[in-house]
Amino acid sequence: MSTISSTSRNNAALATAAASSTPSLPTATLSKGAKGPAVKQLQSALVKLGHMTQAQMNTGPGIFGPQTEASLKKYQAANKLTADGVFGPKTRAEMLKDLTPAKPAPTPGKPSGVTAPPAGLERGSTGAAVKQLQTALVKLGHMTQAQMNTGPGIYGPATEAAVKKFQSQWKLGVDGEYGPKTKAAMDKALAGQKPPTSTPTTPTTPTTPGTPTGGVKKPDMKWVPSANFSSRGGADIDAIVLHHTASNNEAGDLATLTKKGTDVSAHYLIGQDGTIYHLVDDKMAAWHAGVSSLHGDKSPSVNARSLGIEITNDGSGKTPFTEAQYKALEKLVPYLAKTYDIPMKNIVGHKDVAPGRKVDPASNFNWDRIRRATDAVI
Ligand SMILES: [Zn+2]
Question: With CB atoms 3.0 to 4.6 Å apart as the test, which of 119, 171, 226, 376 could cross-link to 180 if both were Cys?
Fold first, then answer.
């Protein structure tokens, strides 16, 4: 033993632990102060069972120190054994059960048996493949078993909503259809992979939604990225909230809505000359609505589900919103409503989602123009 270098012994132990699904357990009773290969066997088992990290083991492989004792106590406590930190016959028997392939240690993120069906399903599809998809959605937490039970094998609204949630989480195009990209992501999810992190970073270019069906053109806009936004947390866009900035200073509004630290933003700002500034990527949540609710719904939050549009205006009710601003809004609101399939009732003012707290847009704002333009396309 003493002739084998500690490095090669470590490597041997690692190789053994990795290759063998049932690391053998020492037969001797072991406690703090013990040393040697038997202790290493025990440590490998504790690593395998998730009560010790490989890094912890590497600080003293083959030495039963405080770390090994603490890990063993954790294992004992988790298995309703006397947590005395001594590796005796009872602990050994329990550990042996946990290490046998018949009862494998749970491998996180690798649910057995559930696989994603072949791509090519959409609302209206029925059959075994849909059921397989629903089972996967249940497994991944996007659908409840109860929801699935209302129509197993039928791709209805609940299934579509669940697919959309999944697509949003995986940063895919959110169309509610189960195509090749969604299938590929679902394969990854079912294999235990995590969705791409939603760490908000200021994108260099905003997401440009495709031209919506119906041919509503995307209006010209200037991308001036704001530092203030966060993830939508999986919520779908289904509302538009209009605001006035309470100032007639376009440059000041632009600074306030984009600078880090102000903690306010909107997706769009409409300047007095009708310039549309795009400040926050549509797929992210902007911080414009505050404490609010949409038709009484507090969850998802209004920020999570909406697009916010600020209009430069002092909000006095006397300063007219400019013709150029109306013209810009008559293009932007219908375009967004069409692109995101937003119903008219969800095109609202800040005062509608925060009544008593907010009054914007001011009473002289002509909603009719916006509604008429939107009505023409949705
Ligand atoms: Zn507002």
Answer: 119
